[in-house]
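User: I'm writing a tutorial on reading structure tokens. Could you give me a worked example: one chain, its sequence, then its tokens, then a sentence or two explaining what the tokens reveal?
Assistant: Sure. Here is the example chain.
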Amino acid sequence: EKVAHCLDKISLASQHLLDLINEVLDMSRIESGKISLKKEPVNLSQLISDVLILVKPDLMKKRQTLHIRSSALDYDTVLGDTLHLQKILLNLLSNAIKYTPPEQDITIGLHEEPDGDKIKVIFTVEDTGIGMTPEFLTRIFTPFERAQDSRISQISGTGLGMAIVKALAERMGGQVSARLEDGRFTAQVSWKAAG
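And here are its predicted structure tokens:
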């Protein structure tokens, strides 16, 4: 039993170290301009489904409920970079799960808006997390920034996830924003895609 407990700790620590290395490498590639974006067909429903498969174990562990809110899509398949879009959604959802107390709700939303000859695809992730100060909200996309809070210091993280989301969204010609309203934190990412 003691060995199993130690192996669990080793597994958790190694996963944290791997996540840290991957985030630092991602940020390094982005900052050096060595990241290339593909233009390939991306099925938006499948993209969300694939990301949900990856976060489901963490949701179940914290007994959180995930709601999906989507309007009727004019284009269910658009041109984009599947891997980097998946990384954006994974970072947003992982943060929501990490900073939201057990048995609370998280919502992922998807809708489209016409934008000239292209289409604007908008993802939102909302949670009722542990909260943050309005002052920190202005620095949330800064690399290595984490809120100074005793509750957050107990949660592993590098402070790179949101910076990576912002950098990738901007490389795709998109935007990212975050807001606090009535105890809910909402992150929104939009980018222009060809339908």
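What the tokens reveal: The two ends are 55 Å apart (CA to CA). The mean pLDDT is 84.
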